[in-house]
Amino acid sequence: MNQSIGWAALLTPPLPGAVSIWALRGSGVWRALAPLCKPVHGSNFSPNVLPASTRLARLAMPGDQHGDEVLVVPRSTNPVPHIEIHGHSGPELLRWHSEIWRAAGIQLCSWQAFEIWQARDRLAGESLQALAKTTTRRGANGVLVQQTRVRTAIQQIMTLFRAGESSQAFGLLESMVAGHRVARAWTIPWRVALCGKPNAGKSSLLNALTGSTRAIVSAIPGTTRDVVRGTTAIDGWLVEFSDTAGLCESDDILEQAGMNAGKTVAKQADLVLWLTEDINQSGIPHATDQIVVHTKSDIRPSSLSHAHAVDVSAVSGQGIDALLQLIVDKLAGNANLLAGAVAFSSALERSCQRAILDLSHNRTEEALTEIGTWLSSGPEPVESSFP
Description:
CATH topology of the largest domain: Rossmann fold
Strand content: 15-25%
CATH superfamily of the largest domain: P-loop containing nucleotide triphosphate hydrolases
Largest sheet: 7 strands, mixed
Order of helices and strands: EEHEEEEHEHHHHHEHEEHEEEHHH
Helix content: 25-40%
Shape: flat
Structural class: alpha/beta
Radius of gyration: 27 Å
């Protein structure tokens, strides 16, 4: 292959019968592509001049009379040429596209690496990736607001570093980290585990909470052997519910494996819903990050509700809204942390943690370098193969 003259990334899923969008950027990408794109109308392309507007063309290797009919979409010429090729999709056709790019000396990379590289700086690239993961208005608005706040906070932190005010910089970094647990639910769901004895109503509640039929409901104890998951949004926050196997004494190897898997899920969860029909709550383990859910309220007396318990019926819907609100209150109760700058992505949170560690060991220059990379240009992509 020729020496790389730029990068190409597929921005759309490789679905058959759909439209594909390739982004290409680099000092020599247009000189390499111009001879391979034959305009359907008008004069031929000049390798030295990027088209001023979108043009319809046929993309093909030299000597190929067929190829793919595409739109050549110029995006920018400065600081380097950046164009998009809109064509047809499908695994085989996209693989053919990738072979054209490689033959022209253009390397392939992931869309994530491409976005970080071509963005204003690493922070802007990280924001674009976070936006691509959001599925709610709350999430999108949160990322957009935090991009500006984090940029301002990083600039302030760097100024404090240089002025020798490390303690104030330390405080800002800790505040950004503290808000991550809440902000991450814009892009990565909180994990909520449904636990309890067999036939406590876990599968029915999972279906009611997610508005789906993810879990099989049966009166036979031990129906759920594996962890069943369903994801939804509550008031704009992403939440993944996990229906676990009922906890009981059993000699059945499969049941034991299911219960062990459920215990692992519960330990890793942000919140546990402990389901029980017993309104006296006997035998329920105490935990801070837990809500006691009294199920099947449509066929039994009501219990005495309190701050960490609620009556529900998956059949009638009674108490479901109250439970959803209680879940949000427990998980987003410290949403006031979002009033300032927060680490809205895992990569940003880890970077802040490293800077905090450096400061705790009096490595101020290392901390300055760590946090300053977010306002620097993103790294050049690493070559990857077409999926």
